Amino acid sequence: MPVRSPAVWGIIRPTLILPVDFASQLSPRSLRWALMHELAHLRRYDLLLHAIQRVLLMLQFWNPVAWIASYFVSQYRERACDDMALAWTDGDAVSAGEAFMYVVKMATDQRTLARAPTSLGVISSGGKRACKQRLKRLLDTDRPIRERVGPVALLFLLVVAVCVLPQHRTSTTHQNALEILDRNAQARRLVWRFRGS
C-alpha cells in the first residue's frame, strides 16, 4: 500500500517508510532533515512510548484529562524530533521548513488521499493549527535548539515530583491509618458486646 508521508513503523524491527517519489522531490538538505526527523523518533523510542500512551488512553477513555494529556504528549513528541533533526542538520531552518511543507502537502493532497487512505502521523497529530505552529517553530532561528531536555525542564519535573509524590504517599498513609483506627474501634465494640452478654 502506498504511503503519503515518511514514517517509522514497527516496535521490534522499526522500518523507515517513504513515499515512492519522496527523495526525488526534495533538495538533499531537505531530504536529510526529513530523514533525521524520522530517525529521531527511533532514537527517542517514540514508537514504544506511543504504544504505551495508546494503551493508557484506552484504559482511561472516559477521562477528558487523559485525552488532553495525550494530545500534548503527541505535540511535544513531534517538536522534540523537529529540534533533534534541526540540531543534527546544523540548524538549517529553511530546508527543514521546505521538507515539512512538502510532507504536509503530500499528506493532505486529495489525489494522494485516494491512493493511500491511511495517515501515518503528520496530520493526525493536531491538524492545521498544529502544522502552522510546527512550521513557525522550525523557521524561528532566534530560539535555542536543544537536542536534549534542558536543565530548567528537569528542575521543573523534579519540583513537581517532590511536591506530588509526598502528597500521594501522605494521603494513602492517612487513609491506611484511618482504616486501622476504624478496625480497632470495631474490635473494641465487639469486645464490649461480648463482655456485656
Task: Please give the count of helices.
Answer: 8
Chain-averaged pLDDT: 79
User: What is the alpha-carbon Rg in Å?
Assistant: 25 Å
What is the number of strand segments?
2
Tell me the overall shape.
Answer: elongated
Short description:
The chain is built from eight helices and two strands. The chain has helices at residues 22-25, 28-43, 46-59, 64-88, 93-108, 110-115, 127-139, 151-196; strands at residues 7-9, 15-17.
What does this structure look like?
- The chain is mostly helical.
- It has 2 domains: 7-148, no CATH class; 150-197.
- Helices cover 71% and strands 3% of the residues.
Task: Give me the secondary-structure topology.
Elements: E1 7-9, E2 15-17, H1 22-25, H2 28-43, H3 46-59, H4 64-88, H5 93-108, H6 110-115, H7 127-139, H8 151-196
Antiparallel strand pairs: 1-2
Helix pairs in contact: 2-4, 2-5, 3-4, 4-7, 5-7
Q: Any descriptors?
A:
8 helices, 197 residues, 2 domains, 2 strands, mainly alpha, two-stranded antiparallel ribbon
